[in-house]
Amino acid sequence: MGNHRDPADIEELLELIEAGSAEQAHVTIGEMMDSVGRRSFGPVVLLVGLILVTPLSGVPGMPTLMGLLTLLTLGQLLLGRKYFWLPGWLVARRIPRKKLVQGLEMLRPAARRIDRLIRPRCSPLVRGPGLYVMALACMAIAVVMPATEIVPFSASIAGLALMTFGLSMISKDGLLALFAWGIALAGPVILARYFAG
């Protein structure tokens, strides 16, 4: 059964993902989403970002898949849906649990430090119109995700932006949202310099 409330921070999200996939050789996208909750969009964006900042971003097709997941999820938010639908082939995509857990464990020390800093503040930036503008930014990142397959480390930069946006959504931290905007705006500059070079 899925989670009945949103995770409060990154560390709780990591624990939910690990617990939801215990004793399995592989874990599906759908199982991870059931673990973190399918009733709101912040945890999904945070989940996508977390996957992309781990070595899993180097798996061929993974950035594109995560981009599609982001587009479908946030597109439904913009349409006003409270629950979202995803195609079966997408939620059935499997990830080796060992690689997933190794990646999540790498993030745990940083997660503890970040979690101590976040708190509700500057709420207009993460509510109402602010939330919808953030959703549009995440969708823009998702659209260029296929290009990150060929630019070293760019998927991780995109993942960091999505992770920060997702965390600001669930923590209602507008200051963190501003930091996410900074990362998101830096991404296109890095891509442009790569292709120009």
Description:
The chain is mainly α and 197 residues long. The protein has one domain. 65% of the residues lie in helices and 3% in strands. It contains 9 helices and 2 strands; from the N terminus they run H-E-H-H-H-H-E-H-H-H-H. Strands 1-2 form a two-stranded antiparallel sheet. Helix 1 packs across helix 2. The longest helix has 23 residues. The protein starts with 9 loop residues before the first helix and ends with a helix. The mean pLDDT is 85.
Shape: globular
- Cα gyration radius (Å): 16 Å
Mean pLDDT: 85
Task: Sketch the topology as an H/E string, one letter per element.
Answer: HEHHHHEHHHH
The portion of residues forming beta strands comes to under 5%
Tell me the total number of β-strands: 2
- What structural category characterises the helix and strand content? mainly alpha
Largest sheet: 2 strands, antiparallel
Helix content: 55-70%
Q: Estimate nothing, just give the exact number of structural domains.
A: 1
Uncertain segments: none
Strand order of the largest sheet: 1-2
The helix tally amounts to: 9
The termini sit apart by: 49 Å
